[in-house]
Amino acid sequence: MNRSRMTSRPEFGPPTHAKPLALGLLLTLGLCGCTSFESRWASAPARPADAVSGRWLGTWQNTNNAHGGPLKAVLIPKGSNTFSAYFHAGWGRRTGTFRMPIHGENSGDTFRFEGSRRILGVRIDTAGTFRGDRFDATYGSRFDTGTFTLRRPEPSMEATPSPTRQR
Q: Count of domains in the chain?
């Protein structure tokens, strides 16, 4: 075995051959979650009693590069000030779904939250606010940082389809 080849890899991040595998796994997991996301979207109340749960529609934007795209979210209450946030995002020609548990507290007319989840060994953190019909958040991992900007969908947008592939 060529010893110099073994030690020439940078000391940070996964091996280069692991990145396509991880991307493939993420896409596979994302594609499997699309149907269950759509059923959650369809059954979520358009105008729930609280300021957090229900449907949200908007965009995500990576702050490290120009990546971004459409974003839908459904928040389901799981306890006192605790929610499961289901996100369905589009990027390039791909879409994916993931779940993030969040917990927060009310401060006046604002609900402030944070959450964290490991996806394929990478920790993703999020924090943000719900105020009226606005849901604004940041996210970060050791690879990326960015923002989510969502609003309650207008009644005419209630049947909005999932983020689609860009052409």
A: 1
